[in-house]
Amino acid sequence: MNIDIPDAVMFKMKKLFTWKSDLETYNKPEHWEVKTAEYDTNSSIVGDCSTFSPTIVEILMRSESPKEVFLITCYTHRDGEWIGHLVVGVKIQGIMHILDNNQEGVRWMKSLKYHWGDQMSLNEPGLWRKLDPNTGELVDE
Where are the beta strands (DSSP E) in 81-140? Predict the structure, then answer.
């Protein structure tokens, strides 16, 4: 996969996406939902990172190299505390690029000041692997 595909997906998602917490939308603290139908029809997509990231994953799975796509948990610093967050990682030529509803465009993982948690490869669904919290590199288990 080259960077053009994630760039185009991110650009379109950012135009369609409006952030709203799961608590406001679904009256519960966490709700994961994929909204590819809205993406495909250029309709508004409302949600938080647990809507944004899984939707992007589903879109990227249509591309020629979905095995290089990951869901990644991390923690961002907001209002003096660490908040759990979900992003999408796409490995291109050995470099992890991040698609994140808090960023304007695709970013290099190492450029983000997050504390990294775990990643799940679409090649191994359901298997979450620990990341070094500072570098985002896989931790040997």
Answer: 81-92, 95-99, 107-108, 115-121, 128-130
Query: CA 55, CA 10: separation in Å to the nearest integer?
Result: 11
Give 6-17 pLDDT, tens digit per residue: 999 999 999 999
CB 49 within 8 A of CB 76: no
User: Token pair for residue 109?
Assistant: 């993982």
Residue 136 lies in a domain: no
129 by Cβ neighbours in 10 Å (0-12 / 13-18 / 19+) ranks as: middle
Q: Report the CATH number at residue 120.
A: 3.10.620.30
- Identity of the amino acid at 94: G
Residues 78-88 pLDDT 10s? 778 888 999 99
End-to-end CA distance of the chain: 28
